Amino acid sequence: MRSIILILLSIIIASNLTAQTYSWPILPYPSGKRVTSGYCAYRPAYNSIVEHFHEGIDIPEETDPLCHVYPTTLAYKVIKIYTLGPDNNLMVKVIHYSDDTSSALSEGSKYIHLKEVLENIYEDSIYIGDPISAATDLYLDHLHFEYRTPSDLANSNNPFAITELQIEDNTAPTLCSLYVDYSRQGDAEVACWEYLGSNFAQYYGTVTGGGYTFLKLGLPMETPWNDWDDPHFIISGNRKVRFIIKMYDASISAPYNYYLVVDTAIVDLSGGSYESDAHYQVKFDGLLSSEYHREETVYHQEEPIVSGWNSQYYRLYPYGTMPSCIIKRLALATENLEEGQHRIRVMVKDYNGNTKTADVHFYIREHDWVDYCRGFKN
Amino acid sequence: MKRLILAISAFFFCFSRAEVKVEKVLETTSIKEYNQWVKKNRARYPGLRPIYITVDQIHKSVSENDMDEYKITYYNDDGRLNKQETIRGWFEMGIFNNGELLFIARREHKYYPINEVRYIKNKDGDILLNLSRIRSYTIKYWGQSFWIENNPYKGGPTNNSRIRIFDHKGNVIGEIKNAWLIDNVLPDTNEDYLFFAVEEKDEITEAVLFYDINNNKELWRKKFSSAINIAISSDGAYTAIGDSGKIYVFDKQGETVYTSQPFTSTGRNPSIIFSDDNQYLATVLGPKICFYNNKTGELLWQTKIDDPDPGEKFIYFFETNNALYIVVAYISNYIYILDTEGKVVKKFQLPFGYAWHYKKTASGDVIRDRKIAVSNWSSKFYDGLLIIKRDRTIIIYNIVPE
Prior knowledge:
- The complex is a heterodimer of chains A (about 375) and B (about 400).
- Chain A is an all-beta fold.
- Chain A folds into 2 domains: about 20-160, Glucose Permease (Domain IIA) (Distorted Sandwich); about 175-375, no CATH class.
- Chain A has strands spanning about 5, 25, 40-45, 50-55, 55-60, 70, 75-85, 90-95, 105-115, 125-130, 135, 140-150, 155, 175-180, 185-190, 205-210, 210-220, 230-240, 240-250, 255-260, 280-285, 285, 300, 305, 325, 340-350, 355-365.
- In chain A, strands 5, 7, 8, 9, 10, 12, 13 and 22 form an 8-stranded antiparallel β-sheet that branches. In chain A, strands 1-19-14-17-16 form a 5-stranded antiparallel β-sheet, with no helix packed on it.
- With about 400 residues, chain B is mainly β.
- Helix content of chain B is about 5%, strand content about 50%.
- Chain B has helices at about 1-15, 30-40, and strands at about 20-30, 55-60, 70-75, 80-95, 100-105, 115-120, 125-130, 140, 145-150, 160-165, 170-175, 180-185, 195-200, 205-210, 215-225, 230, 240-245, 245-250, 255-260, 270-275, 280-285, 290-295, 300-305, 310-320, 325-330, 335-340, 345-350, 355-360, 365-375, 380, 385-390, 395-400.
- In chain B, the strands form 8 sheets. Chain B has a 6-stranded antiparallel β-sheet with strand order 2-3-4-5-6-7, with no helix packed on it. A 4-stranded antiparallel β-sheet of chain B has the order 1-32-31-30, covered by helices on one side.
- In chain B, strand 14 (about 205-210) and strand 15 form a beta hairpin.
- The radius of gyration of chain B is 23 Å and the shape is globular.
- Residues about 1-15 of chain B have low confidence and may be disordered.
């Protein structure tokens, strides 16, 4: 399953890293460190279960009978053993301790879908190096693992923030489309920008959902210094738009950490660098228990902007309700941009440093005429 | 006069002593053999139940595009095949209510509820209740006239967290607010009262609450900071909590009858049980077993058993020939039977052998640590019969006076 993220801009949370030694929760792992569902994957509502973000990672079981589930730190205290499911779908919640058990850390973890917990594991007891369960028998063939802070374990954190829990990921994220909201939160007129005999219609489309139509600009294969295969469009009228990026990480297990670079200056076509500090960043290091973790529903009440699962969904946040995982929100006030050609360079980098970029050009038009020459300013 | 008779009978009851012997009356992996033994002995042991339903996985998915496959078999009282069906998909399943009901959640995607159905089937394989229709995740407890839902995945506890109680047709007949995950729920014998241990909405506080099922009313609630063990007396007159080495006993109004701290190990929670007549309370934590006069709260005795791995598995009371016994099982697979003076009158071990226990080292390696008893078995206790089940193996022990 691919997880697709739509980023609407913002920023960071401090990770709670310690010098503690960590290890993969299933030991040994002859098939390697594998993950079948990533942190923050969106889970829709069904029955009485409310929609929520996946607060952990899913690790497929190992079939070697010697594999067991171990808490990720050497020493731990069992806080609670729950029965979740109808039979023995168990959850174990632990607090992490220093290796010598001299101090409790302000963190812990949850292990879900265990069919059994070893009989010598008790609540409120401290263990060093002991497994909590045989890993060969897990509900739905996987272990759901959560890394949580602080001492009450209220908040979930991205396990990949811990070096020892990171997995191999050499796949760059994929940038799909840039959506332009010009009629709901935006207020503008938009059009495809054909100039100098070029045809950019192949990248220019629309989608409608919830009574609103958005521009849907395709982001072609990356050719960083060729602007002629990038989408071009014109913003006019009140010139206020809202951009939404749709991307996904083809590595199903990739930890999420994307940032976007947006260059708001009048475009420099002389070949100068566009890279600057990230204007918008999504870094899924943690989800706070105090936040309302759900998608904005208004954007996807019906096709084609629809909430779903499997290969795609849209993660959109209404203004002012950003979860803490979205950091650094800088408003790109398109209505105040200087008339002329601008470019958005979307640069996305995942947790493991794999990058992808895409460009979109737009012309801010205040007057009835188009000053193409201003596109060549400077 | 009545009080005097009660006192005298209690005296003899308490101090009558008898040795016991433990007879293995059945060991089998055959459902047919087990059911026929149950049928043959039902008059003598009315609490025994046949096995009606079994679930076997016949295919394990090899990819996310693949699906698991299970064979469900329904048996009659004689252990003969009643019905068999094969189902394919991603499942959660469980057998409950003395083996007479089967919970099935089936969907076509490993993680997402695509074409999901959730229902209860009876022992004939017919759908009894559709949980999807009433938007309930699963069933925590099935009673004679009601059942209690369990919705552990609601996306986490919220301000609207609640537990609903339904009649057997799926109509809501009660609701408990500010309660999310049910850690444990115990009824009295007549199912007039329910004693819950629940997680409240913050998932940090544990609460116990006493619920009047006939009037659908929460009578009282008490909060505890961590996991606890609970017990209820057969008539619902007493409830008990084992928390961090302490025990607390309450009456129906939630008033404290007595408290005690019999265990120095303050971290773990003692297991507790009331005798059927409410006269006694027994509690165990590790090797130490304590016995109380439940009317006065007096600690009558405490003893420590000598066990190689004294992690307690269960504690039962059982009565035979006017003598009361306490049965305590440990993860060493040793089972101890004590009389009401604290004397171990029988000790025997279940035949499940030993296996290696592995440990993780500081460097992340896994090493063999020591051999421990294979104790992943479950037990039930009916009329002096101890029924042990591990995988397909069923062993029945009969505990009889010598």
